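Section 5.1 Outputs to date
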Amino acid sequence: MTVRIATWNINSVTARLPKLLEWLESAKPDVLCLQELKCAADAFPYEEVRALGYETAAHGTGRWNGVAIVSRLGLDDVVRDLPGQPGYLADDALLPAVEPRAIAATCGPVRVWSVYVPNGREVDHAHYRYKLEWLEALRKACAEDAAGPRPFAVLGDFNIAPGDEDVYDVAAFEGLTHVTPAERAALEALGEVGLHDVVPRPLKYDHPFTYWDYRQLAFPKNRGMRIDLTYANKPFADAVGDSYVDREARKGKGTSDHAPVVVDLDL
């Protein structure tokens, strides 16, 4: 049995709906983890996706953030938010808000989390500390599933490049988030519970990127980053037959600034 699992920061499911439907029809994933929905859960295009044979579990509250899992293998044991997930106290808020950044479900033989890790903004910003706290909550939330016999993975936009080779020019990121030792250490800590990076197979370039800024011809120049990641336990990793970044989905007008990452499992 081959199971195709993918992750994609869609950067507004409403704005990219034609691209999403087109990609579901062409790539035919069995499970798709989406991030940055930018819509409330009740505004997700359930019917359009259902017409293609997919169920959806969505978690969103408005114009920012939001995650979903789209599956044609079923959606069981859905969990929204990480247990103990920290909230972020914005400058204009009275209380920390628990943002819709994580959703889990069992889809046939696999269990997945779709996550949208906080950006961090700047190293000396409160959002950076929030990011590190959020990643620690993620590590704790995954421990039980990661240690189990069932294929399990956390997929999504981690807003961290695991290594220097995962950015087009590490010197351009000096002093910025996404590449700091603390962020990378938080990723490595996922290994403590048995989760490890599934690196996509290079196709056109030696180092596969997943995100390119809209500005300054970043995509044609391949000035990108690999920040859309799959962290998997051993049963999941052992079943990987192929993994790649679908750069074609990043081309053209009206696209997300991220490309889907596809992982094929032989189960």
